[in-house]
Amino acid sequence: MFRKWKGGFILSSSLYFLGFANFVSAHEPIFGTGPHTIYKDGIGLEMKYEREQSQYGYDQALHLHATYGLTPDWAVAVEIPQLQKVEENQRAAGTGDVMLQTKWRFYRKDFAEGRQDQVALLAAVKLPTGDTESEPTLGSGSTDTIIGFTVGRESRTLYYFADLRYRMNGENDKKASLTLKKGNAWLYGASFGFRPWLSEYWEPGLVFLMELFGKQQAKNTLNNQALENTGGHSTFMGPSFLWSYKNWMATGGVSVPVMQNLNGEQEKQQYQFALGIELHM
Predict the structure, then answer these.
(1) Which of 90, 44, 83 is nearest to 244 (CA)?
(2) Contact, 43 vs 225, CB < 8 A?
(3) Distance between CA 147 and CA 258 in Å, rounded?
(4) 64 closest CA partner among 26, 127, 97, 15
(5) What end-to-end distance do the CA atoms of the chain give, in Å?
(6) Does the 3-280 domain belong in CATH 3.30.950.10?
(7) Sheet strand arrangement including 221-222
(8) How many CB atoms lie within 10 A of CB 158?
C-alpha cells in the first residue's frame, strides 16, 4: 500500500510490519507477507509507490509504512493510504481506508549453517475511513478483518516464503435501505528467492524473488442477494528484488495475471507494479 502530487495525484501513507533484525538483513515478498517481526522498540518506516493497471483505468498510490516492535516477536502497525483512482472518464483522489495490523512470530529456529525457519500469525482490521461518495469510491464503507499465518525459510543464499490469509468483509450500510457486502476472500502467496552473491553488513546486498499470489473471493451481496458480476479467482506472478545497505533497503517488483477466472462480466487487471524504500531504526 499512498500520497499526493501536483495535478491531483494522491499517494498514501501506511505503517507496515515487515520484520527485520537490528539492520536490514531480513527479506520478505513485495506482494505477499513474511514471518519477520522487528526487534523490541524498533521502528520501521517504508515509502512505497504502487500502481495497478486494468482494462479501463488504474489505481495508484504512494504509501508510508511504519512499524513498532512491542517485543522481539510481536509487532504492531498502521496503514493510512492516500489514493488516486481512474476509471474511464471518472477520477477520484484522497485518503483511503485505514488499516491496523499486528503480527506475532511464535516459532523461530536458527541453524548452524546459517539457515533460519520462522512461523507467524497475523491479524488486521480495516476501518471505513475512505470516501464512499466519490466516483470511483476510495473506500469500502465497511469494517473488515483479516487473519492468517505466514512461514519462511532463509539461508545465506536461498529464500522460501508462503502465506495464507482470510478476509472477512463487513457490510456497507451507508446507502439508506441498500446493504452492500463484499464477498469474503482467501488470500495466498508463495515466493522463492536467491542471493546472487554473498555480502557483509557494510556491503550492499541483493536478493531476487519470484512471487506467486492470488485471491479467491465470494460474490458480493446486495440486501443478501448475490451479485452475478462479482467475485472469482485471480492468480498473479512476477519477479521482485530487494537491495539492502546497512539499515536501508530498496524494493521493487512487477506482476502479471496468470489466471483470472472471474464471475460474469468484470474488468480484468493487466499488471501490478511496486517500488519502495525502507529504513529501520
Answers:
(1) 44
(2) no
(3) 25
(4) 15
(5) 21
(6) no
(7) 171-175, 178-181, 221-222, 225-226
(8) 13
pLDDT values of the chain reduced to their tens digit, one per residue, 281 residues: 333 333 333 333 332 333 323 333 457 899 999 999 999 999 999 888 999 999 889 999 888 889 999 999 999 999 888 899 998 889 999 988 999 999 999 999 999 878 999 999 999 999 999 998 888 999 889 999 999 999 999 998 999 999 999 999 998 865 556 788 999 999 999 999 999 988 876 789 999 999 999 999 999 999 889 999 999 999 999 999 999 998 899 999 999 999 999 999 999 999 999 999 999 88
Question: Cβ atoms within 10 A of the Cβ of 128, count?
Answer: 16
Separation CA 253–CA 165 (nearest Å): 21
Closest CA to 212 of 266, 272, 158: 272
- The three three-digit cell numbers of residue 25, written as one number: 538483513
- Identify the H or E element spanning 174: strand 171-175
CA–CA separation, 210 and 214 (whole Å):
14
CA dist 181 and 227 (Å) reads: 10
Between CA 83 and CA 125 the distance in angstroms is: 19
* Contact between 145 and 153 (Cβ < 8 Å): no
Q: Domain extents for the chain?
A: 3-280
Single-letter amino acid, residue 102: T
Cis check for the bond before 239: say yes or no (omega within 30 of 0): no
Set of cell numbers at residue 147: 487473519
Report the amino acid identity of residue 156.
Answer: R
